[in-house]
Amino acid sequence: MVCGRPLTGGLDTWFQTLIVSSEKGKSDKAGAVLSGWKDLPLELLVRIVSLADDPRMVIVASGVCTGWRDALCLGTTNLSFSWCNLNMNNLVQSLTPKFTKIEVLSLRQNRPQLEDGAVEAVANNCHELKDLDLSRSFRLSDRSLYALSDGCPHLTRLNISGCSNFSESALAIGQNCNQLQSLNLGWCESITDKGVVCLASGCPNLRALDLCGCILITDESVIALANGCPRLKSLGLYYCQNITDKAMYSLANSRVTSKRGPTVRKSTEEKEGLANLNISQCTALTPPAVQALCDSFPGLHTCPERHSLIISGCLSLTSVHCHCAVHAHRAGRAMMSTYHAY
Ligand SMILES: [Zn+2]
User: Fold this and answer.
1) Which residue windows are transmembrane per the record (predicted)?
2) Among 280, 284, 229, which residue's Cα sits nearest to residue 255?
3) Domain boundaries, the chain
4) Overall pTM > 0.70
5) DSSP state letter for 85
């Protein structure tokens, strides 16, 4: 057991054969002998470091000796520099050429430090990257997304929320990174319909898209998503005040169309379709259009237990209800009429 968790597979075998010697590294029993820290099996080292809660552990341990450095550089798939408040830019540029097997990388910042050169270092070295968090990177330009587009074609999750310098042309990243399933573009205020349309055509597997605060987008973006991304499950449109009923009907109709489409075996999640939608402050929307959407997607809820249709700030939408809220209302009325009958 390490950190209270059971070990599995090869590590179980390691533990069974290892005997830690007390003196002179000798033992009567068969098996590998640990006579000092350098003898720690490298697979075990990688596993122990990966279990540590502190993301700095990998970097500290990689500085102990060349053996540990090589093992950690090749064995580490998950790395975070978000703890780094001062030299993130330099650290990323010097370390990413060594950690070439990284699949999950967090470069989230409390204060903006990261520059395009660091993201280019990531893109040039970490070609197996699947999940990248660049949120709050105010200093990055389109250069960063062009580099990722070329170097990291396996990206499935990308968070660039708050990166206000990206233009819509950078969303051409969707043409190369067409495995993207989750993309957070919250408060990328320069994004226009042109970029979202390009994204929708390149990324048919998109499940989650956050466009909250992308104030320039219109119905054209939502229509492109409704037509191009049939697996869309979560959509954030908070404060996108150009969005009208046309967008809601387009999403509702996409559900009808996909139901009639070819019968391919789908997971329960896929069958349910859109299950999270934030249209807070989209003040142009009217109840019939949003109700039509709610009726099309049973995963959208206005009831307090499963609240997944977020409409705060839309005072005109208070009459919109999900299926279970309507049933609860009817059941309540039936109980009341029974009570009055007595
Ligand atoms: Zn409900």
Assistant:
1) none
2) 229
3) 1-76
4) yes
5) S
